[in-house]
Amino acid sequence: QTGQFTYDPGFTSTASCESALTYIDGDEGVLLHRGYPIGQLAEQSSFMEVSYLLLNGELPSQDELTGFTNTITRHTMLHEQLSTFYRGFRRDAHPMAIMCGVVGALSAFYHDSTDINDPVQRRIASHRLIAKMPTIAAMAYKYSVGQPFVYPDNSLSYTGNFLKMTFGVPAEDYEVIPAVERAMDRIFILHADHEQNASTSTVRLAGSSGANPFACIAAGIACLWGPAHGGANEAALNMLREIGTPDRIQHYIDRAKDKNDPFRLMGFGHRVYKNYDPRATVMQSTVREVFDALKVNDPLFETALRLEEIALSDPYFAEKKLFPNVDFYSGIILSAIGFPTTMFTALFALARTVGWVAQWNEMISDPAQKIGRPRQLYTGPTQRDYVPLSQR
Ligand code: SDX
To answer: How many other CB atoms are found less than 10 A from the CB of residue 332?
Structure first.
């Protein structure tokens, strides 16, 4: 196509769709968002800027970025009725269970004002979802610890506002630590979009029926929760805590190699990357930045580094091309910032919402788009006649 180019990773026949948002070369460990390498975006951009890029296809001018950020800022509040919804959950409800419910419930507030055939209403719905996810995630955390909800503060950045809604309390001022805000924002960038992963494919399939975007994103949240997908960041830190000290690593490496043992190294391996996940590279370098900013040190980081070193020198992992993925180091950072492990996947969902809505918009705005209808290879019985119960 004029002015366009199509990278053919060689599996055109199995591709579920065409998309211009994100390109992954799993063999080379390359991740591009609208052509820009994830490493450059993580180091030089911001989550609001990357969100604009994913939604619009180009990096914004200063005016475009200011306008977009202001629009998102003005949608961060949640309808007060929804805070009642939270109170129906048990206090120990998993934040992902709450997010599935609350994001799905947004349909009840915006369904009748979201004509998905109207690009303006699609954009408003997209902005609402991107804007409200930090508020929804922060409220899930506050509810779990029995603290009052903290309203959005429009004087703060997207990420600074999220940190204040999560860790601030009405009884005292909350100061956003710039280095933590930067690290959190970078983590959001690293999780923004990732081609047709399981949860994004779920959002696309749900959206292909014409379902409203809030219900589609709730479906994506449900899929992301699985430990093989977004739930791996929580599982990876739990695994590192179970391993504890480096001397216990080899036992877990041996378990991961044992076909009769269901144990997998969490945060390792990937359906597409058969090389180092470029997001893990940035994540690893961010750990030290957060430790220095917060003057903390978590010995699990050394355990993680040693585990990576041992695994990557083991022929099993080399042969199967198993490398650390985005989830391997993220939990160490999030734990240092103060999040409980149960919030890790909720943070992944918060960030991935921009990818989900950008992919949903790309699909819905394609006039040739049809409802998704995967087929199967049938392996059941050939046709046979019914046998009455009396004869069975
Ligand atoms: C995410 O798709 C995306 O883009 C997802 C994601 C995104 O941004 O949306 O990148 C986010 O989900 C990252 C992945 C997070 N999940 C985990 O870290 C969980 C642990 N990883 C594994 O469960 C596994 O690696 C998967 C599920 C991610 C992939 O599993 P596959 O499809 O089996 O991987 P594979 O085909 O490359 O496996 C090759 C072999 C298999 O053994 P054999 O059948 O050849 O004997 O390696 C084995 C696997 O059993 N293997 C592992 C392993 N991962 C794969 N063995 C031990 N430990 C592991 N972690």
So the answer is: 24
Comparing CA positions, the residue from 191, 192, 322, 321 lying closest to residue 266 is 322
Show the DSSP H helices in the chain as ranges. Answer: 38-44, 47-56, 62-73, 80-86, 95-110, 119-145, 158-167, 178-190, 198-207, 213-224, 232-243, 249-257, 278-294, 299-312, 315-319, 327-337, 344-364
Q: Across the chain, which distance is largest between two alpha carbons, in Å?
A: 77
Counting beta carbons within 10 angstroms of the beta carbon of residue 291, is it exposed (0 to 12), middle (13 to 18) or buried (19 or more)?
A: middle
pLDDT tens digit string along 236-249?
999 999 999 999 99
Q: Which of 199, 203, 229 to mutate for ligand 1's pocket (most ligand atoms within 8 Å of CB)?
A: 229
> Cα separation of 129 and 123, whole Å?
10
Of 33, 271, 319, best ligand 1 pocket probe by most atoms within 8 Å of the beta carbon: 271
Look up the ipTM and state it. 0.94
Helix axes of 249-257 and 232-243: crossing angle, nearest 10 degrees: 130
User: What single letter denotes the amino acid at residue 372?
Assistant: G
Q: What is the pLDDT of residues 32-42, one digit of tens each?
A: 999 999 999 99
